Amino acid sequence: MEYETVELDDKDDALVIIDQTKLPGKTEIIRLKTAQEMWDAIYLLKVRGAPAIGVAAAFGIYLLAKQIDTADYSTFLAEFRKQKEYLDSSRPTAVNLSWALKRMEKIVTDNGDKSVEEIKRLLKTEADAIKAEDIRVCKTIGEFGLTLVKPGDGILTHCNAGQLATSKYGTATAPIYLGEERGYHFRVFADETRPLLQGARLTSYELHSSGVDVTLICDNMAATVMKNGWVDAVFVGCDRVARNGDTANKIGTSSVAIAANYYNVPIYICAPTSTIDMNTATGADIHIEERPAEEVTQMWYRERMAPEGVKVYNPAFDVTDHSLIAGIVTEYGIAREPYEESFREIFARKENAEYD
Ligand SMILES: CSC[C@H]1O[C@H](OP(=O)(O)O)[C@H](O)[C@@H]1O
């Protein structure tokens, strides 16, 4: 299934995305032009998934910068920062949002000696680079992930860390897609992932459309398929990895990790280095987004599933303790305990690679 999760239409000054809230029933392409439309699209998960949110924010802030009508650098910088802070406020947990926006801001602050028009051109180049890197990073994560499994293995996924959460390949699905190209024929079990069903609506849709052997299960069935011996590894994505390896990912991931450890099934986090936040010491320091009750009680504000007025707790993410994680698969290798030391080695490799 070839489609672009996030595209830039530079001529029409539009950020073009698939509205993921309409999948799998309808593939609806929408064009975002204003800061409000971009903010809403991220908050409402029309575009979602840490890497895809980062790419959307990079193109989005570029388009908003284009609209800043001034030749004065200080005025441009002030307005740029206002728009950046606004987009950054849309969702708090996925570090890629702020990481991409900071990268774009650095283009502006590093080039104060250039004209505003030249800075706008440099912003476009940086946003294109962020998207290109995302594709390369995901493919490389797939290569490292493949070293952890063998043809015919059963793989369990949770939420969607697939093509729709990135620019291509996905992170947790990258080994699956690469394996499919090379005849590995994995048997995938996709958790539906309540309340917003990213696993049912997106992961099973992506994999089934790509001819992958995928079985959709309810979240409360994950332990059973592991107990049955059908799962050889768990691959999940992430939204923020703390320095000690604690990982924030879609709500329910920590339950999957506990079950996986009980049944001796390794769980691997597939994490672009852009999602590893060395400034966050442990999972306790990660801000977990809480979302509206209606997502739990009314299935996308449609079918009522619970009594009106009932109390609801709806955290969008949880934190999996580093001690439960068998390895963290990055584009510069697989990190293992002790994670802080392993991450420092991986970032050193990244630094050297970027200078090669
Ligand atoms: C490529 S990993 C993306 C990560 O983001 C998802 O969250 P959401 O659907 O709320 O954006 C989920 O946690 C995935 O693992």
UniProtKB/TrEMBL annotation:
Similarity field: Belongs to the EIF-2B alpha/beta/delta subunits family. MtnA subfamily.
Protein name as it appears in the record: Methylthioribose-1-phosphate isomerase
UniProt keywords, alphabetically: Amino-acid biosynthesis, Isomerase, Methionine biosynthesis
PANTHER family: METHYLTHIORIBOSE-1-PHOSPHATE ISOMERASE
Lineage, broadest ranks: Bacteria, Bacillati, Bacillota, Clostridia, Lachnospirales
Binding site for substrate: 48-50, 91, 198, 249-250
Pathway(s) served: Amino-acid biosynthesis; L-methionine biosynthesis via salvage pathway; L-methionine from S-methyl-5-thio-alpha-D-ribose 1-phosphate: step 1/6
Site (Transition state stabilizer): 159
Catalytic activity from the UniProt record: 5-(methylsulfanyl)-alpha-D-ribose 1-phosphate = 5-(methylsulfanyl)-D-ribulose 1-phosphate
Annotated GO biological process: L-methionine salvage from methylthioadenosine
Enzyme nomenclature, EC number: 5.3.1.23
